[in-house]
């Protein structure tokens, strides 16, 4: 990819690095149902301005999850989708009224704290959830995603007890997450967020992410999950600490 297709300030080397990250994080989510979106968000935050971070991440994650749904469509539990979608529409509409008003240091702090919470906190798991609960979950998590970009770990915590079959969990979460990111993209475009300068980078990350989806099941299931998650937690903690540092410095 030539520098002319990249946003100002982003070198071809950095773009290639981000493509590799998109591949690996997509593969991670395809194999384990979580972790990829949060990791990609954290690393993108080191290269992109905070004003376009969540919109770019949302578009890339929509494409990644949509591709995962296509690959794993037979395992999706479609009965979950409609009530979740209704709540997600409301959550995106409410969140869009607030997110652009937050100053950059507050967004940095929010992202950093969110990363620490979803990485180390013991999030509650729901044994059962009906249509109303699914709608409220869609509203709450989509509203939150307007600010923090990635709510995959929260979705996993809430849905892991609903599906006994891991394939159904991974595929259905891909459909749910695709809905959230699609709604976020619509909301940001409606707010006039301009991403034309980032089109080349977005296409590169989307292509790399789909390749990661295809490779994830075959590659990452062979790794020792305990070691992998330990390394992942360390990386996320370091990135979260840096986000918090930047947020506190900006507030001062």
Automatic annotation (TrEMBL):
Localization of this protein: Cell membrane
InterPro entries attached to this UniProt entry: TM_pro_TauE-like (IPR002781), TSUP (IPR052017)
Superkingdom, taxonomy of origin: Bacteria
Pfam families, sorted: TauE
Ranges that cross the membrane: 12-34, 41-60, 80-99, 106-123, 129-148, 169-191, 197-220, 227-244
Record key words, sorted: Cell membrane, Membrane, Transmembrane, Transmembrane helix, Transport
Record's signal peptide: none
Membrane topology note: Multi-pass membrane protein
Record's GO cellular component terms: plasma membrane
Family: Belongs to the 4-toluene sulfonate uptake permease (TSUP) (TC 2.A.102) family.
Record protein name field: Probable membrane transporter protein
